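User: Please write out a complete single-protein record containing the residue sequence and its fold in token form, without commentary.

AI:
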Amino acid sequence: MGVTQAFRFELDPNREARIALARHVGAARFASNGGLARCWEALARGEQIPSAIDLHKAWNEWKRAHAPWRAEVSKCAPQEAFRDLERAVRNWREGRAGFPRFQRKKAIEDNKARLTGVIRVTPRHVQLPRIGKVRAKKRTDPLLALLEGCKIRVLSATVSREADVRGGTSGSGSPSHPRPRRR
């Protein structure tokens, strides 16, 4: 059985990568807020709350006519936002959390996007889908050693903006690998 473990790296994107990252975060926030609005509408009508698959199908129909910028971002950003929303609604139903709220652009904790697909790691860079190579501030050797030994594979990368004075961007990968359980 695989264990999911996160590796966290502070990124040092150039101007083009910073713009691409901001677009992905914005697309994820936009999709999440649109999905949450549909959930509120379903609740008001007394209908079942739509699943991530339902939200994604509706998004695919809507985006062709209303979102010309969709070609600039990975399809994973809104898709993963819908999955995160579905998980938040499930947590609300099971009494583990409050009902999800709309995400705000200026709130640091709302500025994140999860990307899936082919994610490559080199000693000083992380290559993200549709964004390209983004420089890491520190070397990624611990993750790279596990990748080269075929002990793990990267499943996703979450890009977020940290609340520090410099406004740094961090990325965390979620590789999955077998690890013995502690007793």
User: Anything to note?
Assistant: The helical segments are 15-45, 52-66, 76-93, 141-148.
